[in-house]
């Protein structure tokens, strides 16, 4: 696609981005049939998997028929990669066609690799450019990419900004003093990092006598990697600190650096619907949940030739809408990543997501916004203690603050936690990915 430098241009790919829902479904069905045929022809794993299930590309008469295909997950990716090095037999092209591989560390074992052909990579960068454009990035911007470059799938996304035409600064993860110096020297107007780090970096700047809102030119902050970017209270606090707009992005190392991102309306994340088909399923039954309800995100690639993924269980708990957005784009929107199945805490039988607690804590201006959840067990009963910090200068007594927060959290989550109010700046500050849950219940982590 030719880049139109006119900043008035509203959409990167107007016909695609504003087509009707029926046209989206027809496009997905057509892409999926071709993609399943490619998987069957090129991937020994899928050839065997389809044969064992007695299905094939011809089994797909409608999008609902995808539910007849078996799931795949991270464990299978790892096993097949170890069985058939380098890329595993889920890959559907010879290694000679692969031009880029990202690696995701995961918590256990050898990193899993995600391969791209040259055309996969180009299509990915065109998508990244489209997504950046929808978030308001323009060729006149100076974009500072502050994500890890080392084998991380988020690294190459800087080329999406470059394709869009923005002056792109390949900063990577440098120490915060250095990053602040880069932002100041270049007068960068946009940056991509994690929500925790955006907050940390803003506070670090203030401690150095730099007011991010006044002394720096950053007006757009793209964030990913944690739920915070979709929690309005967290986003609002980062926006105030920086005098900038915060746009949440969602990515998955086994597919793309970002698979969805916020447009300027910031009402959910537009999904890369022509590249990835999303199902939202009840994790226990595998059946689809109703639109808007929370369930596990299960993904099927539609175009990625190097390694098709069919019904990949992400472990992320999400909700979606397909209502049209005020921006005029018609793609499905991810309403939020509410947590990971691994992060979901079950306390006295109630499902509890740390992101729900975060939203309540950050609504209340008498707290700094930092928090930690401590889970414990007393007399065979689970207890939750939320440690929060009272803002400097707040005169409300600790007991009143604690009672207020307990009441609000109970109203939202159904669990009445103990609240321990601490003084400001007591809790450890997170830098990149925040760890805010401490489970002292021994083996009961769920
Ligand atoms: Zn929109």
UniProtKB/TrEMBL annotation:
Ligase found in the keyword field: yes
GO biological process, one term: phenylacetate catabolic process
Name this polypeptide is given: Phenylacetate--CoA ligase
UniProt GO MF annotations: phenylacetate-CoA ligase activity
Database matches in Gene3D superfamilies: 3.30.300.30, N-terminal domain of ligase-like (3.40.50.12780)
Species: Magnetospirillum molischianum DSM 120
Domain AMP-dependent ligase C-terminal, residue spans: 349-441
Keyword Ligase: yes
Protein keywords: Ligase
Highest taxon, organism lineage: Bacteria
InterPro entries: AMP-bd_C_sf, AMP-dep_Lig_C, AMP-dep_synth/lig_dom, ANL_N_sf, PA_CoA_ligase
Enzyme Commission no: 6.2.1.30
Domain AMP-dependent synthetase/ligase: 90-299
């Amino acid at each position: 696609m030719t880049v139109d430098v006119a900043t008035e241009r509203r959409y990167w790919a107007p016909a695609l981005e504003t087509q009707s829902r029926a046209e989206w479904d027809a496009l997905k069905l057509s892409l999926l049939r071709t993609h399943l045929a490619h998987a069957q022809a090129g991937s020994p794993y899928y050839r065997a998997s389809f044969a064992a299930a007695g299905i094939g590309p011809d089994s797909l008469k409608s999008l609902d028929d995808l539910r007849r295909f078996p799931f795949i997950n991270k464990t299978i990716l790892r096993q097949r990669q170890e069985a058939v090095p380098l890329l595993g037999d889920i890959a559907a092209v010879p290694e000679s066609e692969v031009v880029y591989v990202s690696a995701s560390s995961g918590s256990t074992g050898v990193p899993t690799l995600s391969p791209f052909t040259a055309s996969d990579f180009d299509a990915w960068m065109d998508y990244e450019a489209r997504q950046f454009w929808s978030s308001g990035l323009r060729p006149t911007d100076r974009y500072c990419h502050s994500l890890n470059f080392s084998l991380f799938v988020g690294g190459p996304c800087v080329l999406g900004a470059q394709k869009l035409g923005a002056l792109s600064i390949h900063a990577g993860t440098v120490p915060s003093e250095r990053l602040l110096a880069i932002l100041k020297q270049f007068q960068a107007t946009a940056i991509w990092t994690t929500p925790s780090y955006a907050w940390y970096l803003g506070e670090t700047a203030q401690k150095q006598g730099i007011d991010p809102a006044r002394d720096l030119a950053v007006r757009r902050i793209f964030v990913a990697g944690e739920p915070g970017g979709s929690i309005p209270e967290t986003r609002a606090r980062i926006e105030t600190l920086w005098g900038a707009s915060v746009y949440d992005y969602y990515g998955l190392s086994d597919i793309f650096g970002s698979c969805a991102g916020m447009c300027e309306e910031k009402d959910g994340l537009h999904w890369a619907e022509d590249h990835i088909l999303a199902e939202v399923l009840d994790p226990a039954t595998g059946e689809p949940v109703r639109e808007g309800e929370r369930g596990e995100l299960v993904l099927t690639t539609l175009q990625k030739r190097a390694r098709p993924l069919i019904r990949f269980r992400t472990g992320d708990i999400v909700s979606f809408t397909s209502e049209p957005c005020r921006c005029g784009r018609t793609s499905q929107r991810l309403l939020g990543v509410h947590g990971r199945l691994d992060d979901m805490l079950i306390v006295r039988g109630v499902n509890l997501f740390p992101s729900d607690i975060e939203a309540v804590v950050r609504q209340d201006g008498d707290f700094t916004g930092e928090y930690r959840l401590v889970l414990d067990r007393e007399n065979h009963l689970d207890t939750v203690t939320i440690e929060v910090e009272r803002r400097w200068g707040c005169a409300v007594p600790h007991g009143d603050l604690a009672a207020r927060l307990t009441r609000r959290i109970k109203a939202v989550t159904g669990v009445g936690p103990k609240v321990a109010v601490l003084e400001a700046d007591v809790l450890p500050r997170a830098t990149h990915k925040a760890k805010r849950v401490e489970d002292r219940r021994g083996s009961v982590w769920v």
